[in-house]
Each structure stands twice: as C-alpha cells, then as structure tokens.
Amino acid sequence: MIRALWFLLKVAVVIAAAIWLADRPGTVSVHWLGYAVEAPFWVALLVGLAALGIAALGYRLLRGLIRTPQRIRRHSRARRRERGYRALTQGMVAIAAGDAPTARKMARKADGLLNEPPLTMLLSAQAAQLQGDERAAKQYFHAMLERPETAFLGMRGLLTQAIKSGDRVEALTLARKARGLQPDTPWLLGTLYDLEARAGDWAAAEGTLQQAIQAGAIPTEEGRRHRAVLLLERSFEAERRGRADAALSHAQAAHDLMPGFVPAAVRLARLQVAADRLKPAAKVVERAWRQSPHPELAEVYRGIIASYDALTRVRLFQKLLRQSPDSAESHLAVARAAIDAQLWGEARQHLNRAMEIGPTRRAYRLMAELERGERHDEDAAKDWLAKAANAPEDPVWTCGSCGAVSHNWGGLCGHCGAFDSLAWKAPTVAVPLMEPTDIPPALARPATA
Known about the structure:
Blueprint: H1 2-22, E1 27-32, E2 35-40, H2 41-97, H3 100-113, H4 117-130, H5 134-145, H6 151-165, H7 168-181, H8 186-198, H9 202-214, H10 220-240, H11 244-257, H12 262-274, H13 278-291, H14 295-304, H15 310-323, H16 328-340, H17 344-357, H18 361-375, H19 378-390, E3 396-399, E4 405-406, E5 422-425
Antiparallel strand pairs: 1-2, 3-4, 3-5
Organism: Azospirillum thiophilum
Main location: membrane
GO cellular component, one term: membrane
C-alpha cells in the first residue's frame, strides 16, 4: 500500500512538472563558433538530461575499468586465503587423527598460502612433534617467541618438550618465564607448583600453590593436603639447618591443617618429644588415632610412654583402642603392649579380634611371638610364621605414580620424584627400594625423623 502511494506521488509530480512547463512555453538559443541553435525549452531540457545520463554511465564504465585489476587481485587473495584456511583445517584434523605426513604437508601448504605465521608455525610445530622431530618443533617454538602474540604459545610448547624429556631444571625456568607472560593461567600455575615441589623449592611451591587454588587449578581440599605436605618438608629443611623452633612451627601448622594426616602427627609428636613436651605429644597421637590408626603412631606413642611400667602402658594403649575400637591396628597396638607386659590372655584376645577384622602378616608374627613367650611352643610359632609368609603384604608407603615402596614417608617419591604420591597401602607392583646413597638431597631426612 505504501509503495503504491509512493509511486502515485512520483507520477503526480512528473505530470505536474509537465503541465507547468506546457503552461510556460519558450525557446533556448545557443550561439557557438558561428553556429546558432534554437529549440523549445522542453526539448533542450530533455537533451540536457540525456547528456547527464550518458555522462554518468560513461563515468561508471570508466571507473569499473580502472578498478578491475584491483578487484581481480582482491578476489585472488580471498581465494588464496580460503585455500590456506582449508589447508590449515585439514592439518589440524590430521594432527587430531595422528596422521603426521598429512599434517606436515598441510602445514607447508598453509604456510605458503597464508601470511599468518602464528597459525602456521603452531601447526608446523605440532606436525613435527607428531613425526617425532623434536628438534624441528623446538625451532618453530623458538621462532614463536619472537612475536608477542605467539610468545606464550611458544613458551608452552618448549615447556611441554622439557617436561616430556625429563629436563625439570629447564622446565622450571620456562614455567617461571611463562608465568611472567600469563600470570593467572590455571594449568600453568598447577604445572609450576608441581615443578617447584619436585625441585624441593618448598617456600616457592607453597606460594604458587595458593595462587593455583585461587585460580581453580587445584581443588581446595587437595590443596590443603598439598600445603600440609609442603609444611612438613619445610619442617625437615628447618631441622637440617638447626632451626628447631621453625621445624616445630611448620609441623604444628601441618597438623592443624590436617589433624588426621599421619605423617604430620608423627612428625609433630616426635619434635615435641625431642623438646621434652610429652603430654602435648601424647595428645597429638590420640587426636590423630581417632581418625587414622597407624603403626607409626603406635611406635611414637610407645616412645612417649616408655617411662611408665608395662601395665600402665597397656592401659594407655587401651585408651587408644577406645578412640577407634573397630580398627585392627588398635587391637594390634594393645596386643603388642600386652605381650610386653606378659598379659598373654589379653594379647591373644586382641590378636584374634584383629585377625577377624583383617588378617595381616604383622598379626601372624605377633601370634608367633605370643606362642614363644606364653607356651614356649616353637612348632606353633613356626606355623604362624608360615601363615605370615603366605598372607597378603602388609601396608607400606607406596607411590601412586610408579608403585615404588618406602619404609619412610616423604613428600617426594624416591624412585620417580613425584610429589605427594606416597599412600599407606599394600604394594601392587614390585619396585625395588632406593638405596640410601641414591636418595636425592631433597629427600634426605635427619636421624630423628
């Protein structure tokens, strides 16, 4: 409707203009170079309009001819760019599919078609890595460092290479440089924290850990445990340097973070015993026993109450039993104290209860000791020892990364160097223990630990 009205309006304007010109007749005369031309006004007007139309059309044709080469070049660049991005896409698909030759071919093709080094260099580096050409990949990553927009990508590629090759010193240096470029990147903070911890830089690792938790790279509860482990390592380090107060302070902080964490409770209790603070040490063990009964806690507790007579020691271990009555470890601890006190019946009762909960080699060995002490029955003792040899392995500190076992807990695995990987469980893989001379300096422990 609106279009029809607009058309009628334009027709009315034309008709009105024609009527206006018809009511005002006249002539137009042109004298030029001795010639004279006369025409009615309306004819002159039409000629003028036609001339303007022809001039406009000629201008457009001329402009089109002038711009044709530019349009051809623009179209050619667009097609080239399209082919380049198609090659880039095909290269990324080849990377995902593990097709190294196609990835390398598409990388070269994209590099020739596109003038965008950030994209093509990354594809070329990944293609080189896929083919196992780490040297070429490293060259591409170094080239990416020269451009601000690709520097972080290049740093990440070099960092990944260093970690893969096991060069932790280089990896740590690169991770710290990368943090200078992107300080709040979650994966980088998690990687840097792990590298600093593996390097034994406990104070720096603790600071990075806090940033990683805030960035969401590490869950809060997991971060709490990691921080407790770092504090324990700082405690060992302070003790090696003769700073007993700092060692005790760090151990206390670790225990406060995780009261049920056995290494923290054992460490704190031993330091308190060394400082002749027996009552606080006993409370630490009792508090931890409520959550995590453990033979190392029982060993520390025996040292704390060593000055008491045998019967009193049994009563104190019975106190621990009441903290966790359904734990086999509680009954084994009471049985050990009862054997020392020659309370044979009570020792047998608790050993039987421990084996009902879960038979272990330690329970069988204690039963053999009981047979020797109470009845002097060597044959019965040998039978129990034979059962111990065929029983499942006792729990031991076992690395979750490589399966290596250790008789002593540490923040780092002495076999593979993984941080916070030791857990108290039965070993599943037979990995030889490290010799003392093979232990890295970061894992060295004072004699009192």
